[in-house]
Every structure is written in C-alpha cells, then in structure tokens.
Amino acid sequence: MPTSKRDKKVSLTKTANKGLELKQNLIEEFQNYVGTCKYLFIIFSMANMRNSKLKDI
C-alpha cells in the first residue's frame, strides 16, 4: 500500500533559532554597561518580543 501524502509535516520557516545563549549574552552586556557607564543609550529594535526578560529591559 502506498504512503499517504496527507500525513507529511511541512515546516514553513527557513530561519534558524538564535538560542538562549545569545539572549543571555545580550543581557549580560547590558548589565555590565549599566555598572560601568554614567550615561547609557540603547538603540535597538526587536520584533515579536516574547521573552519576558527582554521586555523588562
């Protein structure tokens, strides 16, 4: 009997995950700069901010 074509899983994304390690390094850099600098200007844009730690920043 042939295999059914309905049961195939097709992922529609081609992007790779950035991972938790990258996000942790980003937060550590922010914390280091806050402790060492008198004035700090952070200019960045994030799309779909789902991480609560990044939302707090």
Description:
The protein has 57 residues and is mainly α. The protein is built from two helices and no strands. It has helices at 20-36, 52-56. The longest helix is centred in the middle third of the chain and has 17 residues, at 20-36. One of its GO terms (cellular component) is nucleolus. One of its GO terms (molecular function) is RNA binding. InterPro entries: Ribosome_Assembly_uL10. This is mRNA turnover protein 4-like.
Summarize the structure.
The chain is mostly helical and 57 residues long. It has 2 helices and no strands.
Indicate the topology.
Blueprint: H1 20-36, H2 52-56
Tally of alpha and pi helices: 2
Low-confidence stretches: none
Query: Major beta sheet, specifics?
Result: none
Which geometry do the CA atoms define?
rod-shaped
**How large is the share of residues in beta strands?**
under 5%
Please compute the radius of gyration using only Cα atoms. 20 Å
Task: List the keywords.
mRNA turnover protein 4-like, 57 residues, 0% strand, RNA binding, rod-shaped, mainly alpha
